[in-house]
Design goal:
Rossmann fold, alpha/beta, single chain
Length: 275
Amino acid sequence: MNYRHAFHAGNIADVFKHAVLVLLVEHLLQKDGAFCYIDTHAGQGRYDLTSEAADKTGEFRAGIGRLLAAVPPPALARYGALVQAAQPAPPALQVYPGSPALVQALLRPHDKMVLCELHPDDAAALRREFRDDARVHVHARDGYEGLAAFVPPPERRGLVLIDPPYEARDELPTLVAMVRNAYRRWPTGQYALWYPIKARGALDQFHGALADSGLRKLLMVEFVATPDEALRGAGLVLINPPWRVEDPLDALLAALGPALGRPDATRTVGWLVPE
């Protein structure tokens, strides 16, 4: 519970994760029926990029700062527009909207958002941020407990984002077990499991455990910006992704590398377990 995302908000991994998240939510918006978005590790909701924490690492400059230094390409335009709209004095980049703030900007009046955050300061920040929005429900509790408690949602349609800080050594096995339990209760829900890419061995085991778990329709999406840094890139395993989303995802990732000044970045969009 010591992890604080304020030091890393808006970095390359965030840009990857949130650009894909916006694409997934846009697909949910294509149907009139209400949906529920559940965020198991919601953080603060939005982050001050002028803060001491953000300035200390400066990671946002190579991420969202680089992306918005020019006009984002069409595949990233909606995501870029949402970040720009969150600025108190555009076009100056002062704030980074986390996943709750990005999704809130896309919600319709009949949609709902459930946010879980264990860190007391961040949970309090979430409550302040969304206190005037009846569509948003904030819970100061462990995200995995929240996942077990809140699925299936009454709306029966929706998306769960699980992006823990990976402080615990057993995080990946725990994630597999908790998602299996949630899937049994809500097999038609969409799930997005985020992970950092460092050493491949643990990730290969993670992917293998998911593939052997009985879950169906598992799509792996990865973006590796550089082979030389400790955090090489990030990935998402999408469970029950939207139909034919592979091509839009590939186009998004193909645009992301050059937009971040990483023309040699590599991308992967492939099925761990097909339909």
